[in-house]
Design goal:
Layout: E1 4-5, H1 11-16, E2 22-27, H2 32-47, E3 52-57, H3 62-67, E4 75-80, E5 83-89, H4 94-101
Parallel strand pairs: 1-3, 2-3
Antiparallel strand pairs: 2-4, 4-5
Length: 109
């Protein structure tokens, strides 16, 4: 499943009310590290069925950026049962992101 583009209009439905854990990538098109991370995020979104993956463009969604106090990008957050449970700033490997989500990288594709 491809990632979901998150906006202030669909964030509550897609993230806060999700029955699955949600990985949220706060990014911008001008951010080099964000662009470097994008293929990994896309790969996880396409491979993992037990987690939902969404992306928030911080330039297009300043309200969400303020609400979650995004000061640096890329920022990755994991939500479970509507609550943020993990937050990491900067580029991460696929394995590190899977561990953030709570998946064992050795046991997934």
């Amino acid at each position: 499943m491809p990632y979901i583009t998150l906006t202030k209009d669909n964030f509550a439905q897609e993230v806060l009310r999700s029955e699955k854990p949600v990985l949220v990538d706060f990014w911008a098109s001008w951010c080099g590290p964000c662009m470097a991370l994008a293929p990994t995020i896309d790969e996880i979104a396409g491979e993992q069925t037990q987690v939902k993956v969404g992306k928030v463009n911080v330039d297009e969604e300043p309200e969400l950026s303020r609400q979650y106090r995004i000061m640096s990008i890329p920022t990755l957050m994991v939500f479970r049962n509507g609550e943020p449970v993990c937050r990491e700033v900067g580029g991460k490997s696929k394995e590190e992101i899977l561990e953030m989500i709570g998946l064992d990288p050795a046991k997934v594709k």
